[in-house]
Amino acid sequence: MRIAVFGTGIVGRTLAAKLDSLGHDVTVGTRDPQATLARGGEDAYGPWQRAHPAIGLAPFADAAAGADLVVNATSGAGALAALGAADLAGRIVLDVANPLDFSHGFPPRLDPVNDDSLGERIQRAHPDARVVKALNTVNCAVMVDPSRVPGRHDLFVAGNDAEAKQTVVALLGTLGWPADSVRDLGDITGARATEMYLPLWLRLMSTFGTADFNIRVTGL
Amino acid sequence: MRIAVFGTGIVGRTLAAKLDSLGHDVTVGTRDPQATLARGGEDAYGPWQRAHPAIGLAPFADAAAGADLVVNATSGAGALAALGAADLAGRIVLDVANPLDFSHGFPPRLDPVNDDSLGERIQRAHPDARVVKALNTVNCAVMVDPSRVPGRHDLFVAGNDAEAKQTVVALLGTLGWPADSVRDLGDITGARATEMYLPLWLRLMSTFGTADFNIRVTGL
């Protein structure tokens, strides 16, 4: 599959590397490739790119052009601007981000919350795209390697397009998530539910000092 | 233990009946006992009271007087007014409610949300009380009978007073929740995390058509 991964942070790179290793044609999308490559420090992109020579880097619009699937792995706050730069008509948009607002410190607030969600905002901004919310309830290392967490544990999907959800569930299967561990929450308004789970995830992470955990829904 | 259960709805009655069956001295607190007894229809209190003759019914302040533990099983919106009628100094307040606002329809909004919670509001209104948030992440039938959901599954506690949390964890043990299935989220600000889980619980409930489910945290 031709896949564009929007976001050059740890989430985007982790997903891009795994999808590349699975044989997909992966391009990372960024606002300004030259600025991304010039970035230094711990978050430097250049060394990572040299370790993954098959993964392209392109402006958002170019990365999305011709992609079958666009992964939104931006910081959440930057998602609408990043996706707004691209033509997403007909494409599957796999939104793995959470609308975390760190401007008041840690733990972050969610914005939007309650009666709207990032997934819905993306769908409204791109009515011809087929947005699927998934993977936003686990750390990126767990996203691509669910065996980091012992036993059976679950993901959630939400989206208006059943075929797009099927494609995403199949892709999640190749990441190691059995189809029966992916709970379908219905249309894209289900994104509110999984985004609002984040405060519990963050509290567990900070209390127990690890991101290698998840939840299993029992009884359903 | 002498226990006051605030709230005459299904949650309060389910908890009161179970605690009574375990040998506790239980009084249900309500704003106006005569009005509660006069209530007709499906939610009538009289027939239930006749089936549980050992369970008292009293105004909030009288129910709390002398109680070792006060359970807040009100609707959430009415919690502060109900608890405000009682002297809670030194008492353990087990807050099982969620601040659900149905004024915009279903699903309800949470109010407060993000940087405050019902648990914290109760603690701030009663600085001398020892508030413990727990049980608000499962249906009341599951609260008192976790075996309705197969396998291991978890609860959360949050509160500022370690001894009060220990007392609550021991009480939960008598309801059928093993101590190692109760995850301690630290101080009362952890109530934000479990209250904000409610939208996911509600979405799962409405999608799968049952309230007999829960989550298990895996990897911690």
Automatic annotation (TrEMBL), chains A, B:
Domain of life: Bacteria
Keywords in alphabetical order: Oxidoreductase
Domain Pyrroline-5-carboxylate reductase catalytic N-terminal: 2-99
InterPro entries reported for this sequence: NAD(P)-bd_dom_sf (IPR036291), P5C_Rdtase_cat_N (IPR028939), STEAP_metalloreductase (IPR051267)
Gene3D superfamilies noted in UniProt: NAD(P)-binding Rossmann-like Domain (3.40.50.720)
Keyword Oxidoreductase: yes
Pfam families: F420_oxidored
Protein name in the entry: NADPH-dependent F420 reductase
Source organism phylogeny: Bacteria, Bacillati, Actinomycetota, Actinomycetes, Kitasatosporales
